[in-house]
Structure formats: C-alpha cells, structure tokens
Design goal:
Blueprint lengths: L14 H157 L37 H30 L1 H19 L10 H15 L5 E3 L15 E3 H22 L5 H14 L12 H10 L13 H7 L13 H19 L15 H11 L8 H11 L3 H26 L4 H7 L1 H8 L5
Antiparallel strand pairs: 1-2
Helix pairs in contact: 1-12, 2-3, 2-5, 2-7, 3-4, 3-5, 4-5, 5-6, 5-7, 5-9, 6-9, 9-11, 11-13, 12-13
Length: 523
C-alpha cells in the first residue's frame, strides 16, 4: 500500500489513526528492510550461484577437455590398431602372394628340369644313333682305307724294288761322273751305300755294314755343311753384300721356324710362305756356286752339271738346323708339335725350286738327324759307357763336363724321334710335288730300333719308339695297313716282354692301353 495514499495520513488529529499510521510506517520500514534483506540475500545467493556456476563451468570444461583428450587417445589407439590390422592383412596377402609365386617358380623349375631331362634323354638317344651310324661309317671307311692301303703298299713295294734296282746299277757302275770345275769347298767324299729295299721287322737291321756306311756318309755330309758355312763366312768377310744377305736370311729363317705352331685351327701358311720366299731368293743367287753331289747321300752318276747355288744350300742348312732345334726344345716336352714342324720341313724340301736335278736336298736335314739322334738309324751302344752314350746321341753339358741328365736326354730323343716321324709319314698322293722322304724310311727306322741285339737294347730305344708311335698310329695304319698293325703289336707287346725291365720299356708298353682307350685300337 502506498503510504502517501493511506487514509490515515489525512487524519492527523486522530491518535489512533496516528498510531495506526506510525505502526503502518513502522511496518512499511520493516518490510522495506525485509525486502532489502531479501534482495541482499538474493544478490549473495546469485553471486554464490554465479561462482558455483563458474566453478561448475570450469570443472565441466576440465572434464570436457579430459574427455576430449581421452577421445583423441582412444581414436589414436583405434587408428593404430586399424593400421596394425591393415599391415598384418597386407603382410598376409604378400605372404600368400609370395607363397604362390614360389609355388609357381618351383613348378616352372620342375617343368624345366623335366624338359631338360627329356631333352637330355633325346640327345642321348640321338647321340647313340649317331654313334652307331658313325661306327658303321667308320667300319666302311676302315675297310675302304684298308683296301687302299693294300693297293698303296703294293705300289710302294714296286717303287722300292725299282729304286733298289736303280741303286744296284749305281753300285756296279765303273766310275762316278767327275765334275769339270773346281768346287767352292772340297770336303772328303766317300761312296754312298744305302739300301731302299723294304726292311722287315723280323730281319736284323742293325750292326750291318750298310748301316755303318750310311751313318758315316751322313756324318760326312754334316761335316761338309760345316765347311760350307765357314767358307761362305770367309767370303762374306770380303763381300759385305753377301755377308748382309746371309745374315738377314739366317735371322728370317730362324724367326719363321719359331712361328710354327700346332693344334686344331692352327695355320702355318704364313711362316711357310715366308720361308719359301727367302729360299727362292737364295736359289736365284748365281754366285757363289757349289758342287751339290757332295751333300747328297746317294747322288746320281749321270747328272749333267753338278753346280748349284751355295747360298741356297747354306739357307737350307740353316733351316734344317732350326727345325732340329725346334724338335729338341719344343717337341721334347710337347711332342704334338713335331708333326707340324715335320710338315713344314717336308714341304720346303719338296719344292721344285729347291731341288737339284729333281732330287730333293733333304739329306741336309737327315744329316743333322744322324748327328743328333743316331739311334733311329740303327746305331746302338752300351749306355753305361762314355763311348756307348755318345753313339746313342747323349751330349755333354760342356766340352769337358758331364753328360746331360737322363730326363734332358730323354726329352731330346723324344722330340727328335717324333720329328723324324713327322717328316717321314707324309702323304703326297694328291700333291703336285714329290715326297722328299717317303714312308719306307720310317719303316726302316722302326725296324732298326726293334731289331737291336738283346744286349744292345737301351732305354733310349724305347723312348725313341714311343715318340715315333704315339700320335702317329693312324698314319702307320694308313701307310702300312695290316703290316703296320702287326708292327705295333710286336713293338708294344712283344718287345717290352723280351727286354730287360726299365721305366722306358714300361712307358712303351703302356701305349697299348692308351690306344685302346683313345683310339679304340685293339692290339
């Protein structure tokens, strides 16, 4: 109630009314205080509420933040777990894929292995068929070659008999044709004594006058060649042009011989052609001239004109010496090269430009073989004595020193014997030139080696026989047919049995197994 509007305000004269007004005023004041108090309490409570709300808000914010962090952590854990599971799933997929690839690879390998095995079996089957066909062809070829060998042997016998008759006529001639002009060099000469008849293995071929005379004749030729070399050197001292030509040719010949090689695919055409060109230059040299028959083991008695190029003979001598040195140094430890060296040597001495009255000058080379390897020409001796060793071809380290070692001597004999086979086992049936040293020389050599008296057989003989046979088996059968097979059986089986035991004899006998394994040749 509005105090100013109270009816008691208009009745101040009434005490009751005054009292009532005062009481009313008191009530009003009290009510105002009350309401003021209430307002203050409300404000306090409101302030408290606001504080409580602020605290609650802060606590709520803190709880919300903690909840958010917890949510993020849980999400991160969930994501990590998802990635882990995804990675594990990928690993499982990769493992399964790799296992599948491994299985496919293993299957391919098994398939390839099966294909390779099948192909190998097929190749073996085809190879067996080819071997069978080849064996059949080889048998037919062998039969054909055997027939051809028999024909060739018969022809060779006829030729040798004709040659023998011709030489017999030479022996019975009253006198040799004498040269009209003086020779550049005049060494001692002796009548040649050589037989070209077929030498049978069962016939003694050593220790006879013919063997000794033949060997002596070649030693004389060798000495004459030394004198030729000295004579030309003396002339070269007064003739610089001749001296330079001799020096250049000597060096070129040695170089070309050193270039000769062996082996499949090897071609010695270039060094051989170079040698031919050098020797052709020497052959065309008009001066000096030399009496050629001096250097032949069996010169003809009716040759018109005995002169020839001294420079050619000099170069052939240098070539022969180089070939022999190669036999010793290269063919000794490596006998296979002997055939290549022998081929070149045979070719050079077969060239028509280097012949004299159509006679090969290969005696120049054979003379050096007689000096270095006399055993293959039927010369033998006691290997326990100095003289015997010298007769067998042993050399000394120095003039007054000891003999070379047994190993070195055997290497020398191996190279020289293999080289002799390489020279004498050459087929000239299709060649335009004549064979300068036919195969009957080989047959004669193995006959002489085989027919040495029992007390004269030495290890040198076995070494020489082994070198002359190993690697030449096919040529032996080609030239001599059944006779060659019988010779191999006699040399490799019978000879070692009846000879004193020795390492060299054992090596020779060992060729039987080698021929059976490598050549399929049964003795």
């Amino acid at each position: 109630m509005d105090v100013m509007a109270s009816p008691y305000r208009l009745a101040p004269d009434s005490p009751s009314r005054q009292l009532l007004w005062e009481l009313n005023q008191l009530a009003i004041s009290t009510q105002q205080d009350f309401y003021a108090q209430l307002d203050r309490e409300d404000e306090e409570r409101e302030a408290q509420h606001r504080q409580a709300l602020a605290k609650a808000s802060k606590r709520h914010e803190r709880i919300r933040h903690d909840a958010e962090q917890c949510r993020l952590q849980i999400e991160r854990q969930i994501e990590a777990e998802r990635r882990r599971q995804e990675e594990e799933r990928q690993r499982d997929i990769e493992r399964l894929r790799q296992e599948q690839l491994d299985q496919e690879l293993a299957a391919r390998k098994r398939a390839e292995k099966e294909r390779a095995k099948t192909a190998e079996l097929e190749e073996q089957r085809l190879a067996a068929i080819k071997r069978a066909e080849k064996e059949a062809a080889d048998r037919l070829k062998a039969e054909k070659e055997r027939d051809e060998l028999e024909k060739a042997t018969r022809r060779s016998i006829v030729e040798r008999e004709a040659e023998s008759r011709r030489i017999d006529e030479v022996r019975t001639a009253e006198a040799r044709a004498k040269t009209n002009a003086a020779s550049l060099i005049t060494p001692t000469r002796s009548s040649p004594v050589i037989s070209s008849q077929t030498v049978q293995l069962i016939r003694p071929a050593t220790g006879t006058p013919d063997v000794t005379a033949e060997h002596q004749r070649y030693l004389e030729i060798h000495q004459s060649l030394k004198e030729l070399r000295k004579g030309l050197a003396a002339q070269g001292a007064q003739n610089p042009e001749l001296k330079n030509a001799m020096g250049n040719m000597r060096r070129e010949i040695r170089k070309c011989v050193g270039q000769i090689r062996e082996g499949k695919g090897t071609n010695n055409t270039l060094p051989r052609q170079a040698l031919v060109e050098i020797l052709k230059k020497a052959a065309t040299a008009e001066n000096p001239q030399i009496d050629i028959p001096i250097y032949l083991a069996s010169p003809p008695s009716d040759a018109n004109g005995s002169k020839g190029s001294a420079l050619l003979l000099y170069c052939l001598n240098i070539f022969a010496k180089a070939i022999v040195n190669q036999f010793i140094t290269e063919a000794g430890p490596k006998p296979k090269i002997a055939d290549a060296l022998g081929t070149v040597a045979s070719h050079i001495f077969a060239v028509s430009d280097f012949r004299w009255h159509d006679i090969s000058l290969i005696d120049v080379l054979i003379a050096k073989m007689h000096v270095t390897c006399p055993v293959i020409f039927g010369i033998y001796g006691n290997e326990q004595t100095v003289e015997g060793k010298q007769r067998l071809g042993w050399i000394k380290e120095d003039v007054d020193g000891p003999f070379i070692s047994e190993t070195t001597h055997f290497d020398r004999m191996t190279g020289l014997s293999a080289g002799f086979a390489g020279i004498s086992l050459k087929n000239y049936e299709r060649a335009r030139t004549k064979n300068p040293y036919p195969e009957y020389h080989y047959w004669k050599a193995i006959a002489r080696l085989t027919n040495v008296p029992p007390d004269g057989v030495t290890q040198t003989h076995f070494i020489a026989l082994k070198a002359m046979i190993q690697g030449y088996e096919s040529k032996i059968l080609l030239f001599f047919g059944d006779a060659g097979l019988a010779a191999l059986r006699h040399i490799l089986i019978e000879l070692p049995k009846r000879s004193p035991p020795s390492p060299a004899a054992k090596q020779l006998a060992g060729l039987v197994d080698v021929l059976r394994k490598e050549k399929k040749l049964m003795l």
